Amino acid sequence: MIIQAQKTNATICFSKRGPEDGEGAKLGQDEIHVWKLPLRRTDEQFIDFENSLCQDERQRADAFLFPHLRQRFVARRGLQRLILGQYCGVRAKDIKFVYDDHGKPQVSPDHNLINLHFSISHSEDLALLACSRHKPVGIDIENIRAVEDRDDIVSRFFSDIEKQAWQSIKPAERTQAFFKAWTRKEAFVKALGVGLGLDLNQFSVSFEDQDTRLLSWSEESEKKENWMLYLVNPDQNFSAALASSNKNGKICLFQK
Question: For 109, which DSSP code?
């Protein structure tokens, strides 16, 4: 997996594999860790993941009608518990979560002695988990596909700056461009942690690979320079983005 970060001063590093389960992951003060998490796993792994879930998560898993959707949920939650538990020094099955007023999950303060922030997103059989200390982080991933109401989405949820840029994009390139912008917008909202409290048309991102900045933010224009947006290429046929307020963070990529 590669990550691109143009027009930023962030340091980019790459590791094909993350720490072994028993070693414990180390998250530096100014690091952002991004984990690529394939959700297709062995039967033995699914059993381990399911055994680590809490009662509420097991009930949610059992509510899925289709087995492959249930397996994705179990793998995603199990891997999330495993990795966050490594950072916090807690067994996967013992880690607890709390939710803020906007529904954003956080590690329970009892276990979160390192002030860990995280964001997770999934599409099809692939998930991405972003983690940092002290500063919020947001990540989003989408499978690149045809979207029938794409132009309507642009009209309703994109800013005037983005709509103008959209008109200059060639029709053959619009599917790729749409998901680049959409994942950046979603990652930024996730990092802010405001849920539906921020309209997507109140800020602007770029459609370009070479310019991943937050272009404008109507109500917080003086703060837009504090945020960094990164283009993430997790796999073929996927588009993803990372948002962080840690402008000098070193980004490390792992696969579990």
Answer: T
Complete domains list, the chain, with CATH:
2-255 (3.90.470.20)
Cα–Cα distance, 177 to 119 (Å, whole number)? 23
The C-alpha atoms of residue 22 and residue 29 are separated, in whole angstroms, by 22
Residue type, 46: F
Q: Collapsing DSSP states into helix, strand and coil, what is residue 85?
A: helix
Q: Nearest-CA neighbor of 102 among 8, 198, 184?
A: 198
Q: Are strands 250-255 and 31-38 parallel, antiparallel or unpaired?
A: parallel
The amino acid that residue 100 corresponds to is D
Instruction: Give me the residue label for tokens 């100014």.
Output: 30
Query: pLDDT of 115-150, one tens digit each?
Result: 999 999 999 999 999 999 989 999 999 999 999 899
Report pTM: 0.90
Contacts of 97 (CB under 8 A, 6+ apart): 105, 106, 107, 108
